[in-house]
């Protein structure tokens, strides 16, 4: 297993930094195990597991930086990698936006790691797959699914005294169940930190119900409808989504530069303005026990994180409120842009949590006179970045609701809608559930814009 | 994990990407190292590779494999990222290792290792067989592999004129800085520009008796120019009208002979791209976009430029004719297909009008999908997908040929790295040009109420590929045979079969050129691939256009 302890990792990082001849040096050690199993047509199609451990070293001279990586850890290899990073740095062009490295930081105590997930075996994966396949085979339904588990750690340190360590686990599962005649399709997805909280059988049974109930859908006229959007329609593990699109647009620089929905007419940003319904409150918190996340992050000099962007800069992830009662409260900053603007450099969040209500999905359906229940959206793409207008389609379970009851399945729709408009047309929020490492409530939205019909099942 | 990372671009994404994430495989290296490795390949010792491959083939056989193929791969990548006056990032990366795929007990197994030494190779082959045997217990039908006669020891190289990895980094930075300055000098508020270079060095060996050495090059120059009207609180962007190509650095020569003239000073680029000229024109056009008239929704005749139509072909013909989608292997992710086997068997399914002839081709020069052999040792070829409007074939690989009653694979198996398992990926899929002499000027003259669309914009299509919506980079209103001005907020919505049946007129071969998709995603875990789509400018009648403008 390539999961090093905090002490084991620190020993290697300290040695790396001791070889430095650069003005500044940071090193990042990360590794872990990735397992997956994929099935389709009621049989396993691919399955695999890989281990990895890799060291990334960034050397800096003035405003020139260079990065080298290696996966051997003897003294000679470590020193060679340091020298290589230094060579690359000397030859690199100057980055006028380079910011000196941070010193020691204080981090929140987050725990996104579960031993049960770290211990997953190929047999466990096969059993989880069998639990999903077996009920489908018995009902003459066809299942296609995918489960991916990850156990990993990251340790970072730099010559200014910063040091951080985190280990985390996650499991993502999704399944699409189709009827034998191809006229019905249902979907369910789950993601957990602790695999003991995952039941592939429970999720598959929901997908089976949706597949059977969605067969022989009727066509409704496109137009504006009241919709109940399930959490998988708002956020996705595998595709773009309306809520992620919006939260990814909370970058201060784009807003300041006049090319964001958060840019203000005449210049400046819309920070402090009420842009959404007053029930909309969204914050991030790496210590939330339901969606724990790494307590540090933040991009390097370039654009994001990772070895090819110079690694994590080690900024603490704190509890940050992005939207409070409909008002924009914070934007995220690169350290360069924050310095230029003289404000705190809040990094983009590692997770987000949207406050909701206490109603279940069933309660929300019961209180709906006329509307459409949407299981998920698909192929969501930006149409206009100015208004965050997105297009996409419903998929795998779309139903007509009348007088508090699901009446019949309906053909899939294409929508053209902006999450900003959607969060102003809010009717009700349900109880938040975990989706893609975030917490999001199902939402009831009025006047949601469907623009055409699709024959796809 | 560390197997692949993603460059995350903050703010606006760059043109033509699924998301603002750009995959990078393997480890950081220096540009000098890349240059050395890319040159060395020509003199690489294939006898040594053959010895290593044979270790894997023999080890797998001794453990019970009935078929084995081995890929020893070195994947080199150089990506440059700039904005305005500065370089943001330069990525130099190499990924090297071996992937072993076997059939044992009638079931596929796959394992890969970065440790390309005799002991590790034998162990890796053993793991692949063990995985195959474990999964065999869950299978109901054995794999049926279409036969492929061994091709012996052969080599294939992308016929490049200038190896991009041998061009000094400073020369590339100088080009991008000139491009950015051209945009800024002509009124752009912001500009990002990028160069992507890929060299795949692949050695394939199989128990069929093939030992295939290939050296493949790809290039993609691109930019995004932004204009901002702060007083009005508006911004617009215009992406490069380049195409990613299966070429060397010579694509950036900007040869006049490869420019195709079009209305309103527009230029189509065939096999040579003038990045500076496109940035200069782009800056002027993006300012014009800020003041363009908003479109009146309704039915229009569309005149679609090849640099736009390529994506429509990709989404509405390329993906639906992938046999693995048709069969349900992608049901949980990308989806299935409306182009079902019964429609193909009927030999009368009108996918499009009689003018629509669409070919799959892995041999067309300068394109992304062209190689000598695919990743399961099948020689590449060209074949028809749609002939005179009728669906006639699919894209299939060796374990699918039997399902179509075919005796051989179409040769479109691909893995994006040595550590990913090869599967069916899209070949170049292109619309044949018209046989009657016709330029885009001629075509526009015949349109009474239409829109001329250029460049790749927003795109979305359902999971069975019926209903789609496409935007573009530039939209021009056509009235009574003439272009009368620029339009904004344009997207067209249609149904695949209806759309291709509305295909009314084609420009000729002189107008033909390719569009490309550099990081097309498919599969779980997701793999990328690169593919080209050729066409001449084409007219579609009576397509539904919507207005995408909103107020927030």
Automatic annotation (TrEMBL), chain A:
Pfam families: PmbA_TldD_1st (PF01523), PmbA_TldD_2nd (PF19290), PmbA_TldD_3rd (PF19289). Belongs to the peptidase U62 family. Residues 284-316 are annotated as: Disordered. It comes from Spirosoma validum. This is TldD/PmbA family protein. Residues 222-451 form the Metalloprotease TldD/E C-terminal domain. GO terms for biological process: proteolysis. Residues 32-89 form the Metalloprotease TldD/E N-terminal domain. SUPFAM superfamilies: Putative modulator of DNA gyrase, PmbA/TldD. Residues 296-313 have a biased composition (Gly residues). PANTHER family: CONSERVED PROTEIN, TLDD PROTEIN. The lineage of its organism: Bacteria, Pseudomonadati, Bacteroidota, Cytophagia, Cytophagales. GO terms for molecular function: metallopeptidase activity. It comes from the Bacteria. Residues 146-207 form the Metalloprotease TldD/E central domain.
Automatic annotation (TrEMBL), chain B:
The keyword Hydrolase applies. The keyword Protease applies. Gene3D superfamilies: PmbA/TldD superfamily (3.30.2290.10). GO terms for molecular function: metallopeptidase activity. GO terms for biological process: proteolysis. Keywords: Hydrolase, Metalloprotease, Protease. Residues 297-541 form the Metalloprotease TldD/E C-terminal domain. Residues 165-254 form the Metalloprotease TldD/E central domain. It holds the Pfam family PmbA_TldD_1st. Residues 69-132 form the Metalloprotease TldD/E N-terminal domain. GO terms for cellular component: cytosol. It comes from the Bacteria. InterPro entries: Metalloprtase-TldD/E_C, Metalloprtase-TldD/E_cen_dom, Metalloprtase-TldD/E_N, Peptidase_U62_metallo, TldD/PmbA_N, TldD/PmbA_sf. PANTHER family: CONSERVED PROTEIN, UNCHARACTERIZED PROTEIN TLDD AND PMBA. Belongs to the peptidase U62 family. This is TldD/PmbA family protein. It comes from Spirosoma validum.
